[in-house]
Each structure stands twice: as C-alpha cells, then as structure tokens.
Specification:
Radius of gyration: 29 Å
CATH architecture of the largest domain: 3-Layer(aba) Sandwich
Distance between the termini: 80 Å
Number of helices: 29
Largest sheet: 5 strands, parallel
Structural class: alpha/beta
Number of strands: 13
Number of domains: 3
Amino acid sequence: MKKNLDFIKKTIQILDSVSYENYSNGKDKVYLEYMKGSRADEDKLISPILFRKFLESILGFELGKNINTQELKVGGKPDYIPVDTHTHPFVFDAKGTDTYKLSQHHPQIKRYIQSQGLKYGILTNMRDLDVYTSEKKKEIEEYNFNFEELYRDFKEDLVRCLEKENTKRFLRFVEKFSYIELTIEKKIERIAKAKSWTGEEEINVKSLTDQLRHIVNTLHDDIKEKKSELVSMFEVGRVSGENIADEIEEISAQISGREREKMTPETFDKIMQVDDITLYGKARNAFFRRVAYFAMTRILLARVWEDIGFVEQSLYDSGFAKWYENFNREIKRVLNYAFELSEERYPWLFNTNNNYSWYKPSDDALIDSLYGLSNFYLGKLDQDILGTIYEDYIEKVDKKNKGQYYTPREIVNFIWDRVGFNNPKAFFWHIEGKRIPKRIFDPATGSGGFLVEAARRIRDYPHFDWNDPQDLMDIFNAILWGIFGSEISVFPYYLTQVNLLIQLTPVIRRYIELTGKKPREQPTPLGIICGDSMELHNPDPSLLPIEIKKEKEEPRREILHFTIAEKKIYEKIKDKLIGKFAYICANPPYIGEKGHKELFQHTLRSYSYWKKYYQGKMDYFYWFIILGLSKLRKYGKLGFITTSYWITADGALKLRKYILENAK
C-alpha cells in the first residue's frame, strides 16, 4: 500500500512541478486549470517536461540509457522507445492538450507498433493515457487512466483514492509498463527465445547508436579488468608486447605533443604497471578503448551477416539456443563459432593477429552485448553508424596533432554533389552492354564517411532494379572493385573496412532472396589499405636510383600487416591505377608546419618525391591535393575540404603552380 501511495504522490508532485502560467500567457497557475485549455504544447510542455518526468520518476526509465527519444521531430517515429524492446515491447507517444480524443491517433500508434514489431503503444496528453495494440481498434481499458481524475481523487481523500477504479488502472499501468532490470540468466533466456525476424522491421538508428556506445563502454570496462591477463599473454609469447607498446607510445606522443620515444624490451612492462593518471596510463586507456571498438564491430558485423542469411545464425534466437546447448552453455565458444563462420566470408577481419584481437570478452560483458543487439533487426542497417560512433572516439589529441576531424554527412553529400557523383552515368562506364564501375579514391578515409556515402549512392539509386540479379551484381562489383581508400591510422582504417562491408549488406541480402545463392563464395578484400598516403605518390623519373632504394628500405610500421591480397591493392593504387580514378574526394588532415616540423621532416626523409613540392609555412594537406590530382584520369574530378587561405598563402605557391599546370 505504501508503495502504491508513493507512486500516486510522486505523480501529483510531477503535475504540480510546472509553472503553468509560463505556458498559458499567465492565465492558468495550476494543473487542473491548465488542462481545461487547448494548446499545441506537445513539444514545449507535454513530451519534454511532464511526460519525461513521469517516465523517469514513476516508470523508472532513464533517458539516454534505457530509453531514447527523438532529437528532432521526424514524422513516423514515436517520441520515446525503450532500448530493450524484448523486455519492454512498447512505445510512448505524447500529444498536446489540443488533442481531446487520443483515439484519433490510433492509426499512427498502430504503425509505430507494427514497424517495430511490438505489442503495445501508449498515447498520452497528460490529461488522459490510453494503451493500444495493433490487433484491437480500441484502447485496452484495464490500463487506461485519467490524470485529472487521479489528481482530484488524491487531493480530496488520499486513502479513498486507492479504492477508485481510475487509480487501480493507473497502478496496473505502472506495474505493467515500468522498467525491468534483467539478470544475466534472464538475458540468456531472452536471447535464445527471441522473436524471429520477418525482414520488415524498421531499424531505429539512434537507438542502435546509443546501444553500441553502451556496448563499447561495457567492453572497455571489461578490458581494463584484463590488464594482468594481457601481461601473462605477453610473457608466454601470445601477443607482441613490442607492437602494443609502440601503439600506446604513439598515442602518448599525440596526447603530450612530443616526439615519439624509442621502444625497448622493457617498455611494455613499464606501460602496463603505471597508474591511470600518468601519461602512459591515459594512453593505455585510450588503447583499451580501441580494443573495445574492435570487439564491438566484429560482433556487430557477425550479427548483420546472420540477419541477412549470409552466415548461419548463432548469436540470436533459435541459432543461439542451438549452439549454446551444443557448446555446453559456454558463451565464449558460441562467439568463437560465430567468428569462424564469418571468417569464411572475410578472413582478414576474423582470423588475424593484431593489437586488438587478443581480447576475449568475459561472459557477463559478452551476454550484455549480445542481448543489447538482440533488440535490432540488423539486416536493414544501411547507414554510416560507425562513423557516428567514431566521432565520439576521436580524441582531442587527434584533432590537435593529427588534423583528424569527423566529416558530417551533410558536408560529405555536398562534396559528392559538387563533383557530380549523383547519377548512373557518374557511377559506371557503359561498354558493350555492360556496366564497368568508375573508380573513386579517398586518400584520408577516417572512418570511411566519403566512401560509405559513395557506396550508398550507387546502391540506392532508383534506376537499379532490385528484382534483377544482374543489377545487384553490378552494384556489388562497383563497391567491391571501384572504391579505394587509404588511411594512416589503424583504427579508423579498420572502421572503414567494416563500414563498407555493412553497406554491402542490403545488396547481399536481396541477391540471396532472389537467387538462393551468396554473391561470392571466395572472400575478396575491399580496396582499402592502411598506410601513409604520401607513400602512394607516382613514380618520379627525376629521382636518383639511390634515393628510390632508400625510399623502399624505409621501415614501415604496420600494426595490421598486409596480406598478399592487400599488397596487390596497395600496388594498384600506387602504380597500376595512375590516371585511372574518375573521382577523388576527401577531408585531408589539417596540419600546419608550425608546431609539427617533425612530421614534415619525416615525410621528406621517407619520400624524396615530396621535396620538390615542399616550401616553408605550407600545410600538410597541400601534398594530398597534389597526390589526388596526380591519380585522376583526364576529366576526372577532385573534391576536398580545405582551409580558405591556400588561395593566397605564401606557403601555397608550389601548390597553386601545380594546380594551374595540371588541372582546371
């Protein structure tokens, strides 16, 4: 009884917490007076203030953690959606006090329920609250209640208020639709008994993005607990302490702005032993976050491939139930099996030793991650979702010392439109009745924003017939064979690879639906390499043989080592595709020579080619423009994001001369 009274008291307190005169031009001061009016206050008062307080204080949801809302009002989306829709199979939608009959919005809430594959939809204007299902035309009376009646009954007689039918319905609603915290055992049970996807479910990208952030944080906390395990693996030779120490030293140098220090055999032990508050401790923590992102993206991609039928199901529903039992309820063996299936499709990603692959999630962290993803049908994932998360990842030191910036999608779209990459003629050459993809190149991919948008444009252009297997194969081949990129930093390079694989997902899914076959049995690497783009310059006949030999002998530190196939891609970009790219678009690094002389000197020492394009007070991206223009075919187009001052800057004289001599 006390608990029930608390729910009622808190609800009344919420209704009394607002200065209603601010929303009625000073006319109404209290809740009951205000509710007599009719106002378009859905976005000013009802949804963001009153109902949000009710969600958090009465139903126990926490915005941004276990329930999400629209940041922008977009038609066709409910106001509040629980992150975990398995346990909370409902959505909430608020209306203004100018809505007197909530039932008029039943068709809308029904669409929400059906698009999300849920059971219930809740409508409220904080005067009434109605609960609907997709099956029934009328609301479910046992959960419906009236806030005004609850308010009056409470004010008149607190004890007798509990006897009122409206109050009983209110309490039934609170019990039914409150947030539920699940145990690990319950999460396993719900993954194994999850609903089968129909393929028609809509994906809530914001909700998924928030869930992926949560998964990264969960895995990151888990990784920090495994520091001693990493040390033990180093001691028995299962990981390369030198490579890991080298990467952490690189991060440390970025944080401090100093030059990199030389690594010694003892450096790894030193780095693992220092406190978190030290420079190496902070760099180690940033490295562990990279490991967490690596683990999250592999799990995500495995689930994406399962949902489209590209690999056998093992991380969701009946597939999970089967293999969880077959592997004697050892959750790690289930994940290993899922990765083995994915390895057959893309071995580079799932069967490689690198600085990140040593980590195996603990049972609790893995179950939490799988359960979080079990709320989403990932077969329809077709956006640069990892780019959004990468924006969170880019440390301030990257922006300051490496000139790295996440490129907003609006800017990416603007650049592609400016170079004309927005129609079938831009995507393909038409030769002897066949489509041959026009090649594009991004020499500074970051998380792949430019390349992902190019792939999306090719894939989604309405001229292609998604009922024609040949059209689908043309799209598939354009992404696989026509898109190239280079990224010097290992982690964003990795994200570019995964991001492009996700963009292929809808094409693969549809091809399987039409033909019953997978589009390619033998895995083929995407055209992205991890390396210094300055190394991709064209051959220079003016260089002396000794200079060319020195350049080839320059040691290349590779955290993710090239496979034979990836070396062929490198050779293609560097030598075989000179003058063959139709489009080159990028957001190159913004680094001035002032404060970064060592970086410029390193490039000049490593690649003599760039000496003739060097001059004092230049910016690093000048070399990227020259590199891009040198790779373009005749009538090819280049679109870069740049500073505005290179047009007149003294340090850009050689750049301007090159442009005038080689481009329009």
